[in-house]
Structures are given as structure tokens and as C-alpha cells.
Design a protein that fits this description.
The protein is mainly alpha-helical and 529 residues long. The protein has 20 helices and 2 strands. The chain has a two-stranded antiparallel sheet with strand order 1-2. It starts with a helix and ends in a 5-residue tail after the last helix. It folds into 2 domains: 2-476, no CATH class; 479-524. The radius of gyration is 25 Å and the shape is globular.
């Protein structure tokens, strides 16, 4: 029952803030309500750490001949780390908002707080999905919420089209989930996530890859973002949790042998593209989508090769470390140390939170994984560049603001290291999923590549070779998508022209002429022709 309370409490708090706003428009303590609620949710999430999988049926839909499954929530060693990440992320966002006076004192800040709580609640619901039906319903609700929040923050029609394109990718991933459910139902396979059949694992990997923006390779959409840093971070990171936990679950079965090379090649190209883009942006807040793409690509590749624990490590790091870097918008004493610890947390070095992520390179080593070593090195080089380039904005003069701000960032780091320690304890320590010192050594090659590639991304113009931008543009595949768009536009114009001709006065004559030519063609190709 506590699992349900975990999801319902942020919804109740959002309703409370909205009610207070309507009844008492002059009320100014919305931040305190959201902060206390988030703190309680965070404590509750830590207290329900499961020792064995916990299933909570939400309903019993009948008849079973039409509905072979009912909505179920599942809390286990796969979903619990993401629940901790989501609850820690919203608490850190609300705490660090205090150090942004322009945001926290805005007249519409209450709206941002409601968006924080709704995003967290819907993301937790989708993360706790226990079967394909629950995933289908929760992903649809989350996509609808994202659409509403994005459209409410933008005005230009061009940006509206980008939002619609992003929504279409969301529904494409939902369509893959539906297809996986149809295959499982036809083959009498289990719909639950406690065990995932190999027959549907590839489709689920594809669904998660599309949802995260890794497959197909493309620029992240939409390109516009909310002005509020907190809403930007949660809107980009929180909806990733359901797809990332699905990757970890599908990684228990991996991808079929005849498809793993295809998955790895496309994912590797995306990783290199995202690494180049991440290293070239001016500030982490401007490239959250590239951050997600890089770490999600590593999580997807780990799931493809059957390394479920490695996929879990990379997926959890997406939220924890992403929050640290993307919330670091103000300069204060000790921030470089916090960012350096954040860099260590995604390095896959021994005893770091992503150490198990080195299982991606476990033996037998696939040659295509060389692409991931290069991409991981580019990503780490870009992250090191952001560590060395501190934010230019100064924090407020009050000392308590600096304390709250740094405590929010430290909360993400401490929670990340603690969750990683629990994960090692659950898996019996290093050695799970064939992770050994050989795979760790291979992963450390990426750290060396990051140190070598760092000068290429220096802030000095003379160290920025033009071929990097050219390579990134090529790998983003926008040229291919523009070519396909022009092709479809030409076909559309041709159809319109033919339609206009047939609708004219001579339309009947042209139709008869075409029919006569078609009949003569069939006669000439016949046996006696």
C-alpha cells in the first residue's frame, strides 16, 4: 500500500497547491508546501526498499478473454533505484530553486511547483509498471502531461510543430509496446515484467530507444525549453526513468543474435553524435537532451548485450549525475569539488557508482563496441570541460542560500553513491553479469581517450577543428531526414497535380486514355503478346 501512497502523495500536494492558489491568491508559501511534501516522499521511498519483488494489483479487469492482464505496480531491485532518483531529483530541484530569486519569486512559480509534482508522480507510476498493459497506460498519460506542459510554455507555431514531432516519437514507442503485447498474447507469453521472453525483448529495446531519443539517430526534439531551470531539468530527466528501467528489464533477455549488431551500430553512432554535441555546448543546461542521449545509449547497448546490471547503472546515473550538472547554474565555493565527484560517478572507474556499467565491455568482446569506447571518451571529455568551466552567475549574498544550494547538489551525489552501494549488495558484489577487471580495464580506455580529447574542446577558438562540427552534422542524419521530407513533398505535389488534372474538364478523357494504355500494356505482357 505504501507504493500507492508514494504515487498519490505528490498528486495530492499538487491539488493542495492549486486549491490554495484559487482560494487564497495572496498565499506565498507554496514552496514550503512542496518542499515538505517532497522531503516526506523522499524519506518514504528510502523506507520501502524491497528485499523481494512486491506486486500491487491496481484493478481486476474482466473478462480475461478480452483483457488478459490487469494494471499492476512492481517494486523490485530494478525500479527502486529509479524511484529514489526521481524523489531525490524533485527535492534537489525545489531546494536549489531558492538560490534562483528570479524563479522562486516569480508570480507563476506555483505553476512550476505543480508541474514538478505531476511530472514526478506520473514518472513514478510509469517506472513502477509491472506489465505491458500498465506500461501502455502510464506512458500515454506521461506523454499527454509532457504535451500540456510544453505547449503551455511556448507560443510560436514553429515550436509547436517540434513539440508535435516529439509527441509522435513518444507514441511510436507506445506503438512498439502495443506490438510487443500482441506478440506475447498470441504466443501465450507472460505479460509481466518479472520475466521477459526473448521473443519480445528486441521490440521492448526498440520502444525504450525511441522513447529516449536514441533510436533513430536525430537531433533532440523539441529544441526549445522552458525558462525555469527546475522545470527544464525535470521535464527532460524525469520522463526518462520509465524507459530506462524498461531497458534494464529487457536486458535480462538481451537482443537476438541476428539483431544485436544492428542495434549496437545505430546506438554507437548516436553516442558519438551526442558526445560531440555535449562537448561543444556552452553550459550543461543547454544540452540536457545530449546528456540523456549519451548515457541512454550506453544503457541501451548494455541491455542489447544482455548486461542488465550495467544498463541499470548507466540508467540511474542519467538522473542522479544529470541533476548535479544541470542544476549547477550558480557559482559558489566548493562547486568544482561537487562537479568533479559527479564526473567520477559516471566514469565507470572502480568503486564508482557506474562501476557495474563497465559490464558493457564484458567478454566475449564484440568489435563493434570500439565505437562505444570512443563515444564514451568523447562524452567524458565534454563533461570534464564543463567541470573546469564553472557557471558565470553568482549565487545570492545570503549564506543560507549557498548552504541550501550546495545541500541540494550534495543530496543527489550522496543518494547516487548510496543506491550504487545497495545495488552491489543486492547483486552479491562485483562479478555479476560477467563484470571483471578485464571489462573494467577496457572501460578505463575511455577515460584515457577523454584526457587526450580534452584539448579539442578547449574554449580557445584555435583548438576547435572544423571537422568535428562537420562530423557531428553528418552523424545527426538531419541531411537524410531533409532529403526524405523533400521527397515526400514532391510526391505530394505530384498527387495534387494529378488530382487537379482529373478533376478538370478533360479529366474523363485523361482517365480513359490512361485506362486504354494500361489495358494495352497488360495485353502486350500476356501469353500471346
Amino acid at each position: 500500500m505504501l507504493i500507492l501512497v508514494l504515487v498519490l502523495l505528490p498528486l495530492a500536494t499538487a491539488s493542495l497547491i492549486l486549491g490554495v492558489r484559487w482560494l487564497r491568491p495572496g498565499f506565498t508559501h507554496h514552496w514550503l508546501l512542496a518542499a515538505l511534501s517532497s522531503l516526506f516522499i523522499w524519506i518514504l521511498a528510502w523506507s520501502i526498499r524491497p528485499t523481494s519483488p512486491l506486486n500491487l494489483p491496481l484493478a481486476d479487469w474482466q473478462p480475461s478473454i478480452f483483457l488478459p492482464a490487469s494494471p499492476v505496480l512492481l517494486l523490485d531491485s530494478k525500479s527502486w533505484p529509479f524511484i529514489i532518483a526521481l524523489t531525490t531529483l524533485i527535492l534537489a530541484v525545489i531546494v536549489t530553486d531558492v538560490a534562483r530569486p528570479v524563479t522562486s519569486r516569480s508570480s507563476s512559480y506555483w505553476y512550476d511547483l505543480i508541474a514538478y509534482l505531476l511530472l514526478t508522480a506520473f514518472s513514478m507510476l510509469a517506472t513502477l509498471s509491472g506489465n505491458l498493459l500498465t506500461t501502455l497506460l502510464s506512458w500515454t498519460l506521461l506523454a499527454g502531461l509532457e504535451l500540456i506542459l510544453r505547449l503551455s510554455k511556448i507560443q510560436e507555431s514553429l515550436h509547436n510543430r517540434s513539440v508535435v514531432l516529439a509527441l509522435s516519437l513518444r507514441f511510436a514507442s507506445i506503438g512498439c509496446v502495443v506490438y510487443a503485447g500482441m506478440i506475447a498474447n498470441a504466443a501465450d507469453l507472460p505479460l509481466s515484467f518479472t520475466t521477459i521472453a526473448p521473443q519480445i525483448s528486441a521490440i521492448l529495446l526498440l520502444a525504450a530507444g525511441i522513447n529516449l531519443g536514441v533510436l533513430p539517430t536525430h537531433k533532440p526534439v523539441p529544441q526549445d525549453d522552458p525558462k525555469s531551470t527546475g522545470l527544464l531539468v525535470l521535464l527532460r530527466l524525469a520522463p526518462c526513468a520509465p524507459a530506462l528501467v524498461l531497458l534494464s528489464r529487457a536486458g535480462m533477455a538481451g537482443a537476438p543474435a541476428d539483431l544485436d549488431g544492428f542495434f549496437l551500430l545505430l546506438t554507437g553512432i548516436t553516442l558519438i553524435c551526442g558526445g560531440l554535441a555535449w562537448a561543444g555546448i556552452s553550459a550543461p543546461q543547454n544540452g540536457i537532451s545530449y546528456w540523456v542521449i549519451c548515457l541512454a545509449a550506453l544503457a541501451l547497448a548494455s541491455a542489447v548485450v544482455g548486461q542488465s546490471t550495467a544498463s541499470l547503472a548507466w540508467g540511474v546515473a542519467t538522473l542522479f549525475a544529470g541533476g548535479v550538472f544541470c542544476l549547477s547554474t550558480s557559482r559558489l565555493r566548493g562547486l568544482s569539488v561537487i562537479l568533479f565527484l559527479g564526473l567520477v560517478s559516471i566514469s565507470a572507474l572502480p568503486f564508482s557508482p557506474t562501476w557495474e556499467g563497465a559490464g558493457l565491455y564484458a567478454l566475449p568482446f564484440k568489435p563493434v563496441l570500439v565505437i562505444f569506447i570512443i563515444g564514451q571518451g568523447l562524452f567524458l571529455a565534454g563533461t570534464l570541460r564543463h567541470v573546469l568551466r564553472l557557471p558565470s552567475a553568482l549565487i545570492g549574498a545570503e549564506r543560507w542560500l549557498a548552504v541550501l544550494y550546495s545541500s541540494g547538489l550534495l543530496l543527489l551525489l550522496i543518494s547516487h553513491y548510496t543506491v550504487a552501494w545497495f545495488s552491489l549488495a543486492d547483486t552479491g558484489g562485483v562479478g555479476q553479469d560477467q563484470m571483471d577487471w578485464i571489462s573494467t580495464g577496457i572501460s578505463m580506455v575511455a577515460v584515457g581517450l577523454a584526457a587526450v580529447a580534452m584539448p579539442l574542446f578547449s574554449s580557445r577558438p584555435r583548438t576547435k577543428p572544423g571537422f568535428l562540427n562537420t562530423l557531428k552534422t553528418f552523424l545527426e542524419m538531419d541531411w537524410l531526414y531533409r532529403l526524405l521530407a523533400n521527397l515526400f513533398r514532391s510526391i505530394e505535389h505530384m498527387v495534387i497535380m494529378i488530382n487537379m488534372i482529373l478533376e478538370g474538364r478533360a479529366g474523363i478523357l485523361w482517365t480513359l486514355l490512361g485506362l486504354a494504355l494500361l489495358i494495352s500494356l497488360f495485353v502486350s505482357l500476356g501469353p500471346g503478346g
